[in-house]
What does this fold into?
Amino acid sequence: MVQENEIHPNRVKHAGAGQSLVIVTAWIVMAVAVSLSLFQLYTAGVTAMTALIQRSVHLGAILTLTFLLKPLFKNARKDKPSIWFFIDWILVALSVYCTLYIIFNLTAIFERQGDWLIHDRIVSLIGTLLVLEACRRVIGFVMTSICTISILYAMYGPYMPELIIHKGYSIERITTTLWLTTEGIFGLPIGVAATFVFVFILFGAILEATGGGAFFIDMAYALTGRFSGGPAKASVVASGFMGSVSGSAVGNVVATGSFTIPMMKKVGYRPHVAGAIEATASTGGQLMPPIMGAGAFLMAEFTNTSYLTIIKVAMVPAIMYYLTVLMFVHYEAKKYGLKGQDKDQLPKITEVVRDGLHFIIPVLILIYVLVANYSPMRAGFVAVISTLLISLLANSVRWAVNKDTKPGIVEFSTTQFKSIVNALEAGAKNAVMVSVACAAAGIIVGMVSLTGMGLKFSSLVLELSFGIKVLAILLIGGASLVLGMGLPVTASYIVLATLAGPALLDMGVPIMVAHMIVFWYSQDANVTPPVSLASFAGAGIAKANPMRTAFTSWKLAKGLYIIPIIMAYRPLLGMGKNYDLFHWEVGLTMLTTTLGLFAFASALERYFIRKATVLETILFWLAALGLLWPEYWADLAGFILLAVVVTLQKVYTPAPIQKTGDLNEENI
It folds into this structure.
């Protein structure tokens, strides 16, 4: 949707002569957006490019779109010439120059690493400031402030507290690291955005433009519309199945979220909640066998255990994680009255399938190429091309057999061409938010890497945990969050297993449990602010605020943080019983943990059958604590408290709060 103060050809095409510059700008925006989409398709499916060149082209186009589409201030208009309009064009020119500088001087930049010219320093400083300004316009002051603080931390390291002190770095070292290497702005986060994230966002835009989005929404309505929050629950389950084989949480978000997030928004879920649900469910896909994002194979090697054993012990905790997410989704639906619809108000499944059966083919192709171990980027390319071809074929067949009011071939061809161009433009515009967020995240990543903060976190685990397992686990969670800012999930798991894993082994934690704990926490950077790539990807599709989406996904993914602690204290993985998941103690642990997570979700949302009173909320918290505490007497107490509060929810209805003016002797 075009905002009121944004430029767009449809808005300014009838403007007066004084608006000619605005009209030209509007067409330039379209040209840049379409060109970026075509460039991304080319690099995804035809010829790969050097990482720094591809990321530079991508970021240059994204910055151009940002400054031409997003106003400098809230009240600065983009649809009429002004001083702010010309400032934006100056920023566009600087963005193009700074990114082209890398492309045309790449070899020289590699040769003089560290021995920078004055021109290198100036370009790096300007480029970094441009990313910060784009972040401020697109995301807001919170993310921009975090990026700024990370830069200040790198500059003033000698003045930091002893635990995080470092030698400090000059502004030249900081900006050149951020702009002229792959350790900063052009690092992993923008690399993720410039590859498969963009392609899948484009896939979603093309589905929407060709009618596929409407088809999947109607399909979801037909299948789940009668249930409370049905599409969101279907999204959780679908993301679990897809994520278990895709190997990438972000890839899963953009693959399934292309049609699940619009479904959720249509039934009433707020955009940031829809994006967060998809990000949380997709992250859980990395915990679900059989692939586990390659973690199952690595863990089998590290622990000298069979792959089948890894699958066996990983299944139950993963299911618990998804049950927790489903609880939060259900409560969200109940709290906001997202009820199902009457059957006669829903589309008929037979009619939906008949009219849009051809849209299922690209999805089946997508699933096949992902399962066949194609890269997510190549899978996205195949999905985009197959969707375009199948849609054009279906529309051509309809046009050929249509005998009534059939348009001419020129008109038909023009309509189809415009539809494709609009889809390519929409895909690029939809990617602006997530790409800017990832570029800004690269600043944080670069500073973490430059100052050594990631390794400091890991090495402090032994020193700060004082031999207490739960404290060591929480510290590992913090270390994984920091490492996850700059490393893929698999790499983060390897580093944590090497650096922090021995601390758990020294505390008597079995090796399988230690590695499973580390692996679970290696996922938390996907959904934990400030750098939560899966959340940012979900926000891009949902057109929601990235940080708000990240904090919501952080809340929904609480099972990701609680279940590993249970692993360390209870035989949730069947440890000591030959991995016998049917042993009574293991079964009891599964039951109490599931009920504890249920009580925890109810306490956090303050909802079960209805909104919980203060007393009921306290009882839910106490029940959760008892059921999750590793003692049998606590389990019994927690179970009793849970039974009491559930009974209260069923039999007791709080009196509505009366206004002061309604109080009298009879109702006091």
Summary: Residues 96 and 369 are 36 Å apart (CA to CA). DSSP finds 30 helices and no strands in the chain. The chain has a mean pLDDT of 80.
